[in-house]
């Protein structure tokens, strides 16, 4: 699961990217953080889907 600190860092880098641009190291960090977030999101979403029970 992605913690609040990582989400805050993702948001900070996104804002900085729009305002002034990112260094190559920051771009790499942003890419890695986004990938981690997407993996955690997909895992969580899949668990939710697995717990759905269809009733007729």
UniProtKB/TrEMBL annotation:
Does Calcium count among this protein's keywords?
Answer: no
Q: Which GO terms describe its cellular component?
A: cytoplasm
Keywords for this entry? Cytoplasm
Keyword presence, Cytoplasm: yes
Q: Which InterPro entries match?
A: DUF896
Chief localization:
cytoplasm
Q: Where in the cell is it found?
A: Cytoplasm
Q: Which HAMAP family match?
A: UPF0291
Sequence similarity:
Belongs to the UPF0291 family.
Protein name in the entry: UPF0291 protein HNQ80_001734
From which source organism is this entry? Answer: Anaerosolibacter carboniphilus
